[in-house]
Design goal:
alpha+beta; 3 helices; about 30% strand
Length: about 170
């Protein structure tokens, strides 16, 4: 069994009661792990696997990939969840990480960037003006491209795909 801390990026339905979670972990990079029975009302993992949560997870390697066996929320970003602008920013950051990071590619500097950026967003004042959020997004994009090895680039079109749409009002 493997244990680590991760940020829940996305949830994909998988059958009637199961779901597959995309998680960026501290020790293993991005993983996709099945959570069996997580949609059931009495599921023990249910509340711990909310999108954006920083969660301590346990998983095993099965014949069809990783399977989650444990999950406990470490931090749920309560101040981010109280502000629609902050929610827009975290959604954008998480979408970039999920889209441009490959499964199984561990990168300590990327983990530190993600966590430090979310902590920064969590600490931002509720009444911060729009330019503060734009500055946060611009800085994250630049740092993210740098960590991915695209130093000096300012646009995700360098990656050859349609870029992730920026949050409304922050374009």
């Amino acid at each position: 069994m493997y244990s680590t801390t991760g940020i829940i990026l996305k949830k994909y339905p998988a059958g009637e009661a199961d779901a597959v979670f995309s998680i960026y972990t501290k020790d293993y990079g991005k993983i996709r792990a099945l959570a069996q029975g997580v949609k059931k009302e009495e599921a023990k993992l249910k509340g711990h696997l909310e999108i954006y949560n920083l969660t301590n997870i346990g998983f095993v390697l099965g014949k069809n990939g990783e399977r989650l066996t444990q999950a406990v929320v470490a931090y749920a970003w309560p101040n981010i969840r109280k502000s629609w602008r902050k929610i827009s920013c975290i959604a954008y950051v998480i979408e970039l990480v999920d889209k441009y990071c490959l499964v199984g590619q561990h990168d300590e500097s990327l983990w530190k960037l993600i966590v430090s950026s979310l902590l920064e967003l969590e600490k931002m004042n509720y009444i911060s003006e729009l330019p503060a959020y734009k500055e946060f997004i611009t800085k994250f994009e630049s740092d993210f491209l740098h960590v991915l090895g695209y130093s000096g680039e300012k646009d995700f079109r360098i990656l050859g795909e349609k870029p992730v749409a920026k949050p409304f009002g922050l374009r």
